[in-house]
Automatic annotation (TrEMBL):
This is Fimbrial protein. Gene3D superfamilies: Fimbrial-type adhesion domain. Residues 30-175 form the Fimbrial-type adhesion domain. It comes from Pseudocitrobacter cyperus. The lineage of its organism: Bacteria, Pseudomonadati, Pseudomonadota, Gammaproteobacteria, Enterobacterales. Transmembrane segments: none annotated. It comes from the Bacteria.
Length: 175
């Protein structure tokens, strides 16, 4: 009887070991994703560290809100774009003017009441701080051009003499 109990216990222990001692495996998926982007173009030397100069302005000529200087044309040019790049987007950043946030502030100058307005060369599209514009890459020259214009602008009509200086930073993305 004792032998029968021992063999029953061994059978039960073996069954318990087989049930609880088994390794469980679960299948799982790992999702991996990424983005393939177009290669960068070369920002031309004339575009880097570019300075747009305005003629000397007289504060007495800026007495009404919306008075402006003459347009000064300039361009951003990118070249040597790879064949896979068909479009370039330029994103503008800089301090927004306190009186007109759609314009860039005179952040480094001491003339008050003046802001910077930037538009496309045809003056139809204004580029605000944190704004962006896109240009197609020419398939033959492999370049992208952004013809632009800028002018000083008074949002208040109350201008004081001093320097007008600001910095507009650009970042480019390629499609």
């Amino acid at each position: 009887m004792m032998a029968q109990q021992e063999s029953s216990i061994i059978v039960v222990l073996t069954a318990l070991w087989a049930t609880f001692g088994m390794s469980y495996s679960f299948a799982t998926d790992i999702n991996i994703s990424g983005t393939v982007v177009a290669s960068a173009c070369v920002v031309d030397a004339g575009t880097r560290e570019q300075t747009v100069k305005f003629e000397q302005a007289r504060a007495v000529n800026y007495t009404q809100p919306g008075d402006t200087s003459e347009w000064q044309d300039f361009a951003l040019t990118l070249s040597s774009c790879p064949a896979s790049t068909t479009q370039v987007t330029a994103r503008f950043s800089g301090n927004a003017d306190n009186d007109d946030p759609s314009k860039f502030a005179n952040s480094l100058g001491d003339a008050s009441g003046m802001a910077l307005q930037i538009t496309t060369r045809d003056h139809l599209t204004e580029i605000e701080p944190s704004g962006e514009i896109s240009a197609s890459v020419d398939p033959v020259s492999r370049s992208a051009d952004f013809p632009l214009s800028a002018r000083m602008y008074t949002p208040t009509g109350s201008v004081t003499a001093g320097d007008f200086k600001t910095v507009v930073q650009l970042s480019f993305t390629y499609q």
